[in-house]
Write a structure and sequence with these properties.
InterPro entries: Acyl_CoA_acyltransferase, GNAT_dom, NSI-like. Residues 49-178 form the N-acetyltransferase domain. Keywords: Acyltransferase, Plastid, Transferase. It is a single chain. With 178 residues, the protein is of the alpha+beta class. It has a single domain, classed as Gcn5-related N-acetyltransferase (GNAT) (Aminopeptidase), CATH 3.40.630. It has 6 helices and 6 strands. Strands 1-2-3-4-5-6 form a 6-stranded mixed beta sheet, sandwiched between helices.
Length: 178
């Protein structure tokens, strides 16, 4: 019985989520000197759910996404297995320009959600870099099946990254309240 108490104590949901945040505890320089509007900008990556929700809301607004209640957004982020942010620094203040998150069963599967790059930074390879880093960290945790939902206008972007429609012909199904 002692073994099982130890096992379950050390494999709790909280510990699993906590581990991914400890992979990187500091900002990482991802791209040095990215050209944007005639200026050279360094792009940084951070992992973890310490994100300014108002900055995320502004980022989502910039691409025309429907606003969601910030309280629910915080719950979603807090319960995500992984959150990845891209930003640059302007007078030492972080300017959020990219975001993605993933949920997972902590063993086999993960689903990537809410992938967004600010329009001023689209077409510069940042979406690919964001996805590459997201997949890298999911694979670090030995997640072998990575899925996502894509709007029709971005399906080709994800296909170019190696995503495919389910080869077994499985289609996603949804249930919505009336």
């Amino acid at each position: 019985m002692t073994f099982w108490k130890f096992f379950f104590k050390h494999t709790s949901k909280h510990n699993c989520y906590k581990n991914i945040d400890n992979v990187i505890s500091e900002d990482i320089l991802l791209i040095k000197y990215l050209e944007n509007k005639g200026h050279m900008t360094d792009i940084y990556l951070s992992i973890g759910n310490d994100i300014n929700l108002y900055d995320l809301e502004k980022l989502c607004d910039s691409v025309g996404w429907v606003r969601r209640p910030l309280k629910k957004v915080k719950i979603a982020i807090d319960h995500s297995f992984l959150t990845v942010c891209l930003f640059y620094k302007n007078n030492e203040k972080k300017q959020l320009i990219g975001f993605a998150r993933a949920t997972s069963d902590n063993a086999f599967n993960a689903t990537i959600w809410d992938v967004v790059i600010h329009p001023e930074f689209q077409g510069k390879g940042l979406g690919k870099a964001l996805m590459d880093q997201t997949i890298k960290y999911l694979r670090y945790y030995d997640i072998s099946t990575i899925t996502l939902f894509a709007d029709p206008q971005v399906v080709s972007f994800y296909r170019n990254l190696g995503f495919i429609t389910d080869p077994d012909g499985v289609k996603g199904m949804f249930w919505y309240p009336l």
